[in-house]
Amino acid sequence: MRAPILALKDVRLADGPRMLFDGVDLGLEPRVRAALVGRNGAGKSTLLRILAGQVQADGGERTITPGTRISMVPQEPEIVGSTLLDHAVAGGAPAHRAEATLQRFGLDPAKPAQGLSGGETRRCALARAFAEDPDVLLLDEPTNHLDILAIEILEAELSACRAAVLVVSHDRAFLERLTGRCFWLEARQVWRLDQGFAQFDDWSAKIEAQAAEEARRLDKLLEREEHWMLRGVTARRARNEGRRRALLALRAEKADRLRDTRGTLGMGLASSGMSGKRVAEAKAVSKAFGEKVLLKGFSTRILRGDRVAVVGPNGAGKTTLVRLLLGEIPPDAGEVKLGTGLTVTYVDQARAGLRPEMTLRDVLTPDGGDQVLVRGRPQHVAGYAKQFLFGENQLRQPVASLSGGERNRLLLARALANPANVLVLDEPTNDLDMDTLDLLEDLLADYEGTLILVSHDRDFIDRLATSTIGLDGRGQAVETPGGWRDFLSQNPGFFGVSPSGPETPRAVQARAPQTPAAKLSFKEQRRLAELEALVHDLPGKIAILEGQLADAGLYARDPAAFDRFSRALEVAQAQLSSAEEEWLALEERREALESSR
User: Fold this and answer.
1) Are residues 296 and 426 in the same domain?
2) Is the dihedral of CA 252, 253, 255, 259 positive or negative?
3) Nearest by Cα to 101 from 138, 129, 139, 68
4) Full domain range(s) for residue 588
5) Which among 564, 460, 509, 546 has a CA at the least distance from the CA of 175?
6) Are residues 17 and 94 in the same domain?
7) What is the pLDDT of residues 364-394, one digit of tens each?
């Protein structure tokens, strides 16, 4: 293995009274592709800034090979200069390379740097980093605000670049396609796995199991030492002073461990009661703003319990479509019919209403007091905040001091206090750590209401969506059963890409293979259960229909009933044939995945 060109050794850093890092070792060799994983608030962004030389550690050492160039894209980049090209060359990149990189990311180099969308800001910051041709590239949540197609362009750029890459991201599909090493920031230290992110979950689970066993042994030792002291052994004597110090150290270690123990996200999600079976139905809906046509003649029907993902390039009209479906804005043509009894809750990617000077208490109790009305019942604000992994001491903390993931959790806490039977999530995964993301998926899987999901997170969509609506940004919209991969496979070329990604020559050469899943996704598991029920129930339905049609006098007595039963029999037989084929394919996939573990 080659020597690292950038490394940390025994690095320590305190954040006030709290120790953030305590003995961190981390090294990056040329061309390595690594993920930095850890829960929100663990210090991943700070660790990147230490590597970049922007933050000085309290102890330890940072070594860098002379002449090594480092580029970093922070979680919330700022664009400087009059134009995008001004920003892209501000770090020393030659103008011709900066122009080419901006164009590869779909940006006009002459575009003014003011008034950019979140996606444009992110793409400009990434273009500048690549244009600088660094030896080390540090990326903090680089897929935030990018649409799925831009993420695939980023994957192609990363696969083609020569830099060592360290990336912090919540996007599982992105990390699985990119990385060959994982660094896990946990308990103030960094653990290293010399494999890609696809192996991270199994590896980290083993480490956590070992830590739990070590904690159990520590607790037993502490119990024995406490017993020793209570029995009156004279700990004040000089010969017992060492043992007393050891006991105090054990107590301090346990206190640290309890502080670092990962919390359990206890957020609950309750429906406000059943809506009507039909949530929304759009018929031949069209919508344009000026000359920009977003929708032309699109129709869909959303029923109670559906989980609908909306995907497409930034600016294609995803949020507009959601607002049309919920009756918030009128279509230019066509009609939208809403169901009865709808109560809607939004989680907005813009994090509307989270002003920097507000405290957590201000956000959760906007009318003052110490009670939060959680689905109609009062609950103490500290107890409710704890369910979202916030300590009582954080209630006085300003929003400005929170990490991106903590702000997103706070937004979820505020939104989910309200009962709703329609939940609209606009980019809900931005900045969330893996643990919170898994818990959010479990929560949504059990949600009894209707979910409308606008997201760029391909893995999140694949695990949750029962159908996916794609918008191409040119007025066309298509709905396909299943998630992102299902949509691409059934609509090749819809976005101007192949099922694997953008078909630029560079992307074709550089595309990394996608690591297969270790088990069926939530959507596939649920579909398998639905198919088993169909295969079980449909033969009985077919037998009943055949029995009704066997009545020799039915046609003469009731021709309409005969036609109705005949059509129903044809539909049921076709459903059974289709269900059996789909069930067999899914069952074979499940068995293959289990045998490959």
Assistant:
1) yes
2) positive
3) 129
4) 522-595
5) 460
6) yes
7) 998 888 888 776 678 899 988 888 888 888 8
